[in-house]
Amino acid sequence: GVILGFSLRSYKMSYREVKYFSFPGELLMRMLQMLVLPLIVSSLVTGIAALDSKASGKMGVRAVVYYMSTTIIAVLIGIIIVVIIHPGKGTKENMHREGKIVQVTAADAFLDLIRNMFPPNLVEACFKQFKTNYEKRMFKVNVPSNDTSTVASIISNVSEAMETLTQMKEEIVPVPGSVNGVNALGLVVFSISFGLVIGSMKEQGQALKDFFDSLNEAIMRLVALIMWYAPLGILFLIAGKIVEMEDMGVIGGQLAMYTVTVIIGLLIHAVIVLPLLYFLITRKNPWVFIGGLIQALVTALGTSS
């Protein structure tokens, strides 16, 4: 893909031609995104329903705690690395920013995480997640009687002095909002809960167990078929991105530090944090466990999933 991309740069392809050229790569990404949701739901429901109620209950709680813990740790690692490396420093120095950046409070971010665990609409959770937005609103507040400067500016005659003294105050308040993206946490919580209920239904839930077993097997076979197409799709995806770049030197310089930052963060999280968590919880050698996941890890790395 890299060789093909650099070979075609000399032809100065138009935007339309580049899009047509990278179409096989776009198809690969759409195929993978198509299977993410059914794969998550079917695999979780199947796995949890197959366990006994006590084991699956503990498994569900641990899965949610593990998901939240690793997410928080990953965010902290990302913040620390960005503060140390400053990947965006020196790029686009002449760009003027307009408006103000509203700081998101830790309380609102935590509450958003809890809200996303319980999506009100499962269909909407497939492509949207809750996020607190902020907007400015005007409120009337009483003026303190000892604030002579404010009182003097408001009172213009005796009749106004007899009324309640108020002034308008601008305040930034949180309002409900949403962002595009799969609400994976909400789907995980629902799938675990659904699997727990199916597992507790014994024979009455056998039909649903069989359904999700078949669904999971069908999704895995579709994934196997897509993996046969993956090398061709990746080739055109990489080549198309290289052809699309206008100035390799400038773009390469801008993206180099971002790439280094991301790789360092992923290495710290994957090589240090996750094995350490595994050791602290199980008291076993994490590298033996990771060795058994090589095929799955290579697949995940190759598909960026």
UniProtKB/TrEMBL annotation:
Tell me which UniProt keywords the record has, alphabetically. Answer: Amino-acid transport, Cell membrane, Glycoprotein, Membrane, Metal-binding, Potassium, Sodium, Symport, Transmembrane, Transmembrane helix, Transport
Q: What is this protein called?
A: Amino acid transporter
Family in the record: Belongs to the dicarboxylate/amino acid:cation symporter (DAACS) (TC 2.A.23) family.
**Source organism of this protein record:** Syrrhaptes paradoxus (Pallas's sandgrouse)
This protein's source sits in the domain of life called Eukaryota
Subunit structure comment from the entry: Homotrimer.
Question: Which SUPFAM superfamilies does the annotation name?
Answer: Proton glutamate symport protein
Stretches that traverse the bilayer = 31-51, 63-85, 182-201, 222-243, 255-280, 287-304
Membrane topology summary: Multi-pass membrane protein
Record Pfam families:
SDF (PF00375)
Q: Does the keyword Cell membrane apply?
A: yes
For this protein, the record's PROSITE patterns field holds: NA_DICARBOXYL_SYMP_1
Q: Where in the cell is it found?
A: Cell membrane; Membrane
Which transformation does this protein catalyse, written as a reaction? Answer: K(+)(in) + L-aspartate(out) + 3 Na(+)(out) + H(+)(out) = K(+)(out) + L-aspartate(in) + 3 Na(+)(in) + H(+)(in); D-aspartate(out) + K(+)(in) + 3 Na(+)(out) + H(+)(out) = D-aspartate(in) + K(+)(out) + 3 Na(+)(in) + H(+)(in); K(+)(in) + L-glutamate(out) + 3 Na(+)(out) + H(+)(out) = K(+)(out) + L-glutamate(in) + 3 Na(+)(in) + H(+)(in)
User: InterPro entries from the xrefs?
Assistant: DAACS, Na-dicarboxylate_symporter, Na-dicarboxylate_symporter_CS, Na:dicarbo_symporter_sf
GO BP term, pick one: D-aspartate import across plasma membrane
Q: Does the keyword Metal-binding apply?
A: yes
GO MF terms listed in the record are: glutamate:sodium symporter activity; L-glutamate transmembrane transporter activity; metal ion binding; neutral L-amino acid transmembrane transporter activity
Q: Which GO terms describe its cellular component?
A: plasma membrane
